[in-house]
Specification:
The structure is a single chain. Helix 1 packs antiparallel against helix 2. By secondary structure, this protein is mostly helical. Strands 1-2 form a two-stranded antiparallel sheet. Helices cover about 90% and strands about 5% of the residues. The protein contains two helices and two strands. The protein has a single domain, classed as Helix Hairpins, CATH 1.10.287. The chain starts with a helix and ends with a strand.
């Protein structure tokens, strides 16, 4: 009987120890679960933050694409204007050269007439009148030539201005070619310079 009682008490002691150990393990599991829950909450917040960042980056990318398209359009317009002005300058150069040639021919005529007058040494009313007409024509041609030179200078200034604007647009285009890339769920900025 004592033996049974001792065995029972020993068994009860083992069960109590086992219960204490089980409660300790249960408390540890609860603590571990609380830690895991905290980690889950932390990661959920990180995922939410990353989703917001991804949305912001997507919007920025769309904005940059729109800005790039706009700058491309401005660049094409500036290049078109530049070509148009270059054509106008070429035409004005041709006109100027034609006027220069005409002026040179008229100056030769005037020199011939002067030589003739010197040779004849006689006042001639008809000759003087013709000489005056030639002088008037030369004066008009010189005025036309001066006007063409002014137009050519203004056109060159316009081309220089357009070239500067075009260069600026190209620089801005290069600046906006920072394209946002998405790789395996991670967003990053890639510089294409």
């Amino acid at each position: 009987m004592w033996k049974n009682r001792c065995e029972l008490e020993s068994r009860i002691k083992e069960l109590e120890d086992c219960q204490i150990q089980t409660e300790q393990e249960r408390d540890q599991v609860k603590a571990d679960m609380a830690a895991v829950t905290d980690e889950c909450n932390k990661y959920s917040q990180i995922v939410a933050d990353l989703e917001v960042q991804a949305e912001n980056l997507t919007q920025q990318m769309e904005s940059l694409k729109s800005e790039l398209a706009s700058q491309e359009s401005v660049k094409r317009e500036l290049e078109g204007e530049k070509m148009s002005l270059e054509v106008r300058i070429a035409e004005q150069e041709e006109q100027r050269e034609a006027l220069e040639k005409e002026k040179a021919d008229l100056l030769k005529d005037v020199e011939r007439w002067k030589e003739r007058v010197e040779y004849e040494k006689q006042p001639n009313i008809a000759f003087e009148k013709e000489n005056e007409e030639i002088r008037t024509t030369i004066k008009e041609l010189e005025e036309e030539l001066q006007a063409e030179r002014t137009l050519t200078k203004e056109s060159k200034e316009q081309i220089n201005s357009l070239q500067a604007s075009l260069d600026q647009a190209k620089k801005q285009q290069v600046g906006t070619q920072n394209i946002l890339c998405c790789d395996a769920g991670t967003f990053r900025v890639v510089n294409q310079n």
